[in-house]
Amino acid sequence: MRGLFIALQLVCLALWILCCYAVDGNMALATRPLSISLFHSLNRVGAPVVSPNQKLALFITSYYSQDSNKSAAYLSCMDIATGGIVQLTENRPGTSLSNPIWFDDKTFGFLRHGELYKQELRPGSAATVVFNPPITITSLMYRANSGLISFMASVYPNSTLEESAALKRVEGTKSDSAQVYDNLWARHWNEWMTLEKPNLFVAPLNISETVWRVGPEVNLNAALPRCPDVLTRWHIDDYTISPSGSSVAFLARPPMQNMTWSTNVNVYLVSTTGASKPHLITQHTHGQASGPVFSSDGRRLAWLQMETPGYESDANRIYIHTIATRETISIAHDWDLSPHSLVWSKDDKMLYTIT
Hints:
- The chain contains three helices and 26 strands.
- It is mostly beta strands.
- 26% of the residues are buried.
């Protein structure tokens, strides 16, 4: 319940800031109509990231500056007990960051320009680079008990991060951008499908008093069945890592010739060692899965599941998988509401959801 209370508290904080603050942070309540320029100048507060001791929360504030025609994003920390907020990174148009994480109760990290930074939680501390990967990484997580970082990166078929960076440089020297498609997933919204596809990686983070180093990465979905068409191969959508850091559950779109017409998104379980093949746990459902979350003891995995193939507006149902027995059940199946996210209670006896 404490985690849910913290989340709701910070959502209220975000709405309050959005309504009351302009870019300069002055607490002047609106006395004029909401114009499009005023709307764009308002701060936007991101989701909170609670510290391991549950006393602090990191959050990103972003805004757009019409004067400079640039966006900005900076990181702040809130004391959950008092509500006090301290800005941690610079606030300047043109600067940006994403994906705040905690390394411990006194050290946090974030991504900026494709690099992983760390910074001490004390006034005047400077951010230093921990990991400078050759290509952009996203969806970063860290588990202190396993010493692993996990992240997603779009890579070429059967390529490492370094190999993909080299291939991308070669692509940049071509005199044309022609691409032949013989499948029906040539474009997704405003993005053309390319040879690069999102893959899931883990890597050891070696921490010492003087130097932090990231070891060789392991591609956790490399052992999925080979696909003859590289343009329609496996597409990783999202993932979550177990509390112990020993396993990962990820969402994957299986490759098929007509992926445009399919809503099928599966859930797979795999060890973070990369020594075993990913195990499919949604073999009996063919709709879209989303939002996987491990119980706090790591013994069960819950997720949301649409059950009607090809129906993007289907209701979400709650599924729970027991990892040791490989048994999957659906709960509250006849519920007339469609949940959008799941959170386990601290004792793993209840699930909280937002509808």
